């Protein structure tokens, strides 16, 4: 699909009261990227998100039924509402949702009120969404952090109705016809304390002509009713025929008064939607302008900024500003209002790998606030978050909150008490919580006693062992960096436990029983069982903190590199294993046709960069660029699988910079092959780091030589400090690999055993 632009000039500069010479990068972004997804094959599992960076609320058109995870699917041609949304992916339910739907005849039933549309009549940008239905009703949306400015334009002479749907579960509405507004609350979502509410205000700039409430359980309407509370309660209003109605809305988790304050602060001065749209464009251009790329094709720039947009949505802000401008938040963990910052809507199993290391580099102030928020969440619910949505869900495996904390400390982001962090992690690592496998540790006793999690006593046991060992190294690393000998001793014992699930006879990670015997009939292409959404080809590389030891266990560089090569050369065959049928991750690996390289899921996404550790960095350069070209684009088919809260996008953004975070918890980024001729990082500290590769193109993917700040540079990694201190990395690119550069022992990135 060719992307349609609001603007076309590559570096058009906007000059409004809200933008100060920011390059117009927002026009590159297509928020429909990855929306052509379904249960059996996902191309991102995204929806066209209209929001500000890390905004507390987002807005999107809705093609799916209320409560359906498939919120918006590109192949659908009917829209049934425009939602306030927060959903992480199609595999999770949403929370704090209500929707608005314009129509010319009053129909409340969501299946019957839906209206047909064409993508040709749709504009999907971060700062502006617009669609015209076939019935000629037009909807426009421009976002703020906690609200939105909408405009509904009805055909001349036709009736003008607007239906507010309270979504699933409890809701309450109150219509004030004299003030031309609806106030209310919704109570949908998982894991909240009993009685929580998301309060909203909806203000119209046109007089209400008629009104009523309705019930989406029975689809019955009650004309002239101004209030309703209960399951699925909603409201409707009617304006004069052929109206053009501006709607300002904002929400709060704290109170209706705070929702009013959010509305006034964020939208009070905007008389038109165009003003809100321009402000949002300026905010996005400043955010996207933290990375300015030059060279490459138009499609390359579209893909880069579409991915950077998506990487800049998660985790969402969960705090508000009180009357004095100070941050406060309703805690989804203890149901109380606290001063300070809180963030939510992410799963650390996905995002510890690239999304948070990207934020550490480009969103440093927010990242520091996030680290303290992790400690506050622990104090409020008794556990470090593992999957916050918006409270702790404990999904997937591992205890990767400690990865975020250790990584921040290693990069000089010291915004939290490390002793509190280590205490919290020790509790996490020696207990099992009530919410999901990653809330605390499944199999923690056996992990300590045997040195691994046994199978089949625990599902996904080998994946758990590998990720627990990495997390224990993160605990050790944070303790070491902060001089805490006690916790160094505690975690040093476990951080080598990956060795206990490596079978030297097969050179794969395998499942092991409590008696020490390997699981019988091992096949590395068999999914599930001791692995999570993958097989041994994917998990054998999950020794993030000690790749050199993995190289040694495999018999040295030659054997290690040969096995890396095999990932791409062996057939892309699948044995479904304990899944008993093809799941979408399997289908996506087969469709990618890159052997057993299953980039559509997170466990193997770092594997390409392991050539940097074994003397063949040119292969990392080739495969990184190959994956970027083959697996990503800015269309509705833009991802190779679940995008997952910014992680897969962040892989692309970092890789397009020529970087990747193989070992969060160190200050290093492994080096690959940048996508563009020139990349400028505009850092929050006011400094710039430039990656200059003038010969770079689709054929010249290999680094022939490099200079860092004018000095010869052979290392296969660069440090956080080298990046954030500003400077220039100059790369001479070639269409042929330089097989002598980056091959010395000192050129390798971090491994524990080399320290």
From TrEMBL:
Cleaved signal peptide residues: 1-19
Keyword hit for Hydrolase: yes
Cited SUPFAM superfamilies: Six-hairpin glycosidases
Limits of the Glycosyl hydrolase family 92 N-terminal domain: 28-252
Keywords annotated in UniProt: Calcium, Hydrolase, Signal
A Pfam family: Glyco_hydro_92
Domain Glycosyl hydrolase family: 258-734
Presence of the UniProt keyword Endoplasmic reticulum in the record: no
Family annotation (Gene3D superfamilies): 2.70.98.10, alpha-1,2-mannosidase, alpha-1,2-mannosidases domains, GH92 mannosidase domain
Subunit (UniProt): Monomer.
Name of the protein this chain belongs to: GH92 family glycosyl hydrolase
Organism this protein belongs to: Mucilaginibacter ximonensis
């Amino acid at each position: 699909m060719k992307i349609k632009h609001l603007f076309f000039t590559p570096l058009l500069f906007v000059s409004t009261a809200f933008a100060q010479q920011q390059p117009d990068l927002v026009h590159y972004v297509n928020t429909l990227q990855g929306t052509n997804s379904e249960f059996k094959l996902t191309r991102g599992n995204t929806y066209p998100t209209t929001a500000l960076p890390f905004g507390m609320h987002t807005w999107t058109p809705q093609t799916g039924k209320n409560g359906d995870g498939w919120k918006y699917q590109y192949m659908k041609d009917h829209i049934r509402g425009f939602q306030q949304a927060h959903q992480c992916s199609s595999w999770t339910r949403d929370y704090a949702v209500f929707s608005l739907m314009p129509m010319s005849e009053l129909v409340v039933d969501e299946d019957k009120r839906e209206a047909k549309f064409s993508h040709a009549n749709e504009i999907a940008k971060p700062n502006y969404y617009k669609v015209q239905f076939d019935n000629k009703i037009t909807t426009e949306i421009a976002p703020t952090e906690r609200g939105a400015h909408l405009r509904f334009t009805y055909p001349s002479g036709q009736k003008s109705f607007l239906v507010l749907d309270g979504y699933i579960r409890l809701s309450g509405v109150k219509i004030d016809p004299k003030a031309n507004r609806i106030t209310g609350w919704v109570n949908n979502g998982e894991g909240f304390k009993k009685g929580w509410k998301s309060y909203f205000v909806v203000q119209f700039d046109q007089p209400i002509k008629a009104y009523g409430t309705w019930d989406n359980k029975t689809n019955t309407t009650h004309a002239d009713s101004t209030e309703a509370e209960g399951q699925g309660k909603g409201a409707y209003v009617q304006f004069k025929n052929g109206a053009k109605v501006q709607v300002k809305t904002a929400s709060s988790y704290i109170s209706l008064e705070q929702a009013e304050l959010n509305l006034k602060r964020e939208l009070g001065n905007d008389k038109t939607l165009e003003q809100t749209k321009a402000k949002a464009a300026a905010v996005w251009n400043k955010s996207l302008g933290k990375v300015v790329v030059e060279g490459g094709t138009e499609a390359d720039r579209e893909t880069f900024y579409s991915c950077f947009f998506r990487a800049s949505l998660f985790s969402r802000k969960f705090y508000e500003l009180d009357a004095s401008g100070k941050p406060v938040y309703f805690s989804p963990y203890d149901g109380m209002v606290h001063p300070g910052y809180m963030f939510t809507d992410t799963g650390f199993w996905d995002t510890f790998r690239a999304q948070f290391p990207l934020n550490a580099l480009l969103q440093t102030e927010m990242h520091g606030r996030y680290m303290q928020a992790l400690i506050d969440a622990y104090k409020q619910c008794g556990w470090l978050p593992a999957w916050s949505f918006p409270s702790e869900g404990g999904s997937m495996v591992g205890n990767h909150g400690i990865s975020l904390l250790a990584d921040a400390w290693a990069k000089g982001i010291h915004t939290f008490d490390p002793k509190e962090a280590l205490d919290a992690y020790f509790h996490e690592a020696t207990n099992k919580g009530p919410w999901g496998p990653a809330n605390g540790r499944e199999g923690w006793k056996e992990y300590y006693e045997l040195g691994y999690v046994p199978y089949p006593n625990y599902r996904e046991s080998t994946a758990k062992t590998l990720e627990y060992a990495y997390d224990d190294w993160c605990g050790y690393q944070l303790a070491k960096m902060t001089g805490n000998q006690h916790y160094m001793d505690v975690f040093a014992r476990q951080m080598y436990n990956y060795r206990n699930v490596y079978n030297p006879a097969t050179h794969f990670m395998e499942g092991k029983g409590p008696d020490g015997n390997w699981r019988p009939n091992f096949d590395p292409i068999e999914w599930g069982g001791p692995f999570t959404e993958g097989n041994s080809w994917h998990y054998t590389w999950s020794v993030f903190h000690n790749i050199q030891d993995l190289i040694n266990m495999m018999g040295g560089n030659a054997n290690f590199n040969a096995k890396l090569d095999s990932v791409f050369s062996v057939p892309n065959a699948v044995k479904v294993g304990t899944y008993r049928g093809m799941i979408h991750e399997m289908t996506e690996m087969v469709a990618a046709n890159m052997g057993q390289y299953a980039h559509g899921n997170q466990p193997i996404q770092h594997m390409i960069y392991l050539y940097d550790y074994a003397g063949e960095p040119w292969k990392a350069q080739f495969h990184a660029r190959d994956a970027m070209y083959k697996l990503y684009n800015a269309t509705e088919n833009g991802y190779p699988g679940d995008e997952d809260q910014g992680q897969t996008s962040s892989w692309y953004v970092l890789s397009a910079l020529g970087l990747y975070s193989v070992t969060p918890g160190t200050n290093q980024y492994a080096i690959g092959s940048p996508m563009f001729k020139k990349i400028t990082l505009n850092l929050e500290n006011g400094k710039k780091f430039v990656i200059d590769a003038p010969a770079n193109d689709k054929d010249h993917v290999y680094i022939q030589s490099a200079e860092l700040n004018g000095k010869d540079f052979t290392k296969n990694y660069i440090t956080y400090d080298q990046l954030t201190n500003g400077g220039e990395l100059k790369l001479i690119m070639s269409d042929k690999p330089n097989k002598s550069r980056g091959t010395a022992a000192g050129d390798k990135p971090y491994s524990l055993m080399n320290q």
